[in-house]
TrEMBL record:
Keywords: ATP-binding, Coiled coil, Helicase, Hydrolase, Nucleotide-binding. It is an enzyme of class 3 (hydrolase). It catalyses: ATP + H2O = ADP + phosphate + H(+). One of its GO terms (biological process) is maturation of SSU-rRNA from tricistronic rRNA transcript (SSU-rRNA, 5.8S rRNA, LSU-rRNA). Residues 25-192 form the Helicase ATP-binding domain. GO terms for molecular function: ATP binding; hydrolase activity; RNA binding; RNA helicase activity. Residues 292-471 form the Helicase C-terminal domain. This is RNA helicase. It comes from the Eukaryota. One of its GO terms (cellular component) is nucleolus. The chain holds residues 250 to 1006 of 1158 of the full protein.
Amino acid sequence: PVDRLPEIQEARLKLPVLAEEQVIMEAVRENEFVVLCGETGSGKTTQIPQFLYEAGYASAGGIIGVTEPRRVAAVSMSHRVAKEMNLSTGVVSFQIRYEGNVTKDTKIKFMTDGVLLKEIQKDFLLQKYSVIVIDEAHERSVYTDILIGLLSRIVPLRNKKGLPMKLLIMSATLRVEDFTENKRLFRTSPPVISVEARQFPVTVHFNKHTAMEDYTGEAFRKTCKIHRMLPPGGILVFLTGQAEVHSVCRRLRKAFPYRGSVQHTDAEDTSEELRKFKKVNKKKTVSLPRIDLDNYSALPVDEGDEDRQAGIDDDAEEGSDLDLDLGDNPEDAEEKADPSIPLYVLPLYSLLAPEQQAKVFRPPPPQARLCVVATNVAETSLTIPGIKYVVDCGRVKKRFYDKVTGVSSFRVTWISQASANQRAGRAGRTEPGHCYRLYSSAVFSDFSLFSEAEITRRPVEDLVLQMKDLNIEKVVNFPFPTPPSSEALVSAERLLVSLGALEEPPRQGRMVDMERARLSCPITPLGRAMAAFPVAPRYAKMLALGRQQGCMPYVITIVAAMTVREIFEELDRQASSEQESSKLAGRKARFVQMRRLWAGQGPSLLLGDLMVMLGAVGACEFAGCMPSFCEENGLRYKAMLEIRRLRGQLTNAVNAVCSDMGVCVDSKMAPPTESQVVCLRQIVLAGLGDHLARRVQAEEMLDPKWRNGYKTPLLDDPVFIHPSSALHKTLPEFVVYQEVMETTKMYMKGVCAVQPD
Ligand code: ADP
Ligand code: MG
């Protein structure tokens, strides 16, 4: 029996899934696999684990496992469910890559999908669990996909052995056919239960003209108009990244100052904005026409879609009163600071500190309208209360990989129609709402219907190694919900063979046999050791070699630093005044100086960027890993904490694999000796051997674009050492690099000099 607080009980009763409890639990009782669909906010994540608990799934020896693709969700949902059930976090717990609070009394365990995959490696039958819930399956994260494939085999196996087990797949949008209609996955389609959310109609307004370059400016102007002209109700703005979010927050706070809170602390205005702001203040204010608020057309999202598909022309949709008034003409939209209508502006993105994130769940101060400026995180994982207006820029930032060369880049691309409709839906949670799309309906109709599954978009060598370690030799035959391309599979096996993780395929025999053999190489003992490390195979190889000459603590630190993103703070911000500009220049100079110091002297210089990382982590730990030290020296504090946790975890993993090692994490690590540096360079070369680049010889005879360029085996064009790299001036003949990232040029990241023999 669960003893809930009355206010919790009352809030629960309003959630759509509550009405379906019996139907859902009966389906789970009768079937091995069940798919549950329901709009974001309908109560899937918070309530289904409670239903299972109350139906006794955690009382017969097994526990309830719930997987989430995002760490934030695993942590915050475990807290929320513990609170709702009035149970301690020792009973409703979480486990993510670096930390957790699981105890022997844990009955409901929230974890990231990666954590469960690792557990399958230890116990293929997952005997701890009586039921697994895969949450957010629509996100199609790589690990979620793999887990569904594996569980489609594990669950029947368990039931055959008389150890009953259930799988529940939960998804927000309705594209579940990849799971249900995939005969390799489930021979008979599992039942799909759809929960009707209490969704109010959302009127969708398209721009006549798509905002191309300046969509953040357009988002700002649209938000201002909504705030000035439309009745109360929260505004949610979708942008693509942290920098955009901050810039729009700043401008909105400037336009509608809200006094009486500390919300302005993180806002520093750029000179460009100040200039615009002054200009606006001189211009006479344009008075905007009043709108008749009783005359809205209230079209539900879905009906709007039908209209579009039926080919009704743009003007018919865009010609409503609301659109005339909130038109997409930038000219009349300059804003003048107006403190009489305060706007409570909050940023929301995944790297934001949790206590900042939590603010969006609390009601805004009286008299002020809530405005959340968010990245994609607000699309499905989090439900913000009280949103009535959505402003959608129609874009998302994603990482892209070249299938052949592995070169990656972050690009802003159009979202899918499914995402656009998800975003629009956020406006209709509490009452009828409006969604303003900063693009035309013609552009919308060119969007793809759904976003692609992640597994088709990235290299898969880590997955292939994990699968081989699970003794799945023929990875091509694995029941993927959506299979990766065969190119990706072939290049993954090739890399793993070259790292020594898989056995070499036979070189002789019939062509077809050789082809087949290339895709079914068995794992080697080295491969098994590598699979035990929670990092990508190239880094796992370095760890596997790390025991030479006492290098292990250094290898662990370098690998930890390489796998954590953006450890250095970048100072590319524009200064708003001369004073600030000289302050910024001073900081920049100090950062450069520190990095030079960390790069060391003599032979350690050749370790290049990796030595800088090693030196930075060493110095930071020596100083006790304090936020002030990071701030002064250009290190990202959050990244440093993550590196610290990862070092601990990798150290444990190494000790588990080689029990005689006895390495420990030393916060007062001395720099490596000369012979250790030589050894480290060899270890790095062994891991990154396929990322070798050679300085172009006789470059004067070539195209000027090759100046200071490097040639790599797979790319026709040159790659470069970034000006911020420790080896930028040295330009060694041979280097290995962590990865190539394309920004203004193709730049190598994490460069280290090598001398191949
Ligand atoms: P779903 O998984 O279907 O998207 P959830 O179970 O996450 O739905 O959310 C159900 C409700 O619980 C939502 O109205 C949401 O706002 C509320 N909720 C979730 N987490 C919190 C929290 N930490 N504090 C307050 N309310 C929350
Ligand atoms: Mg959820």
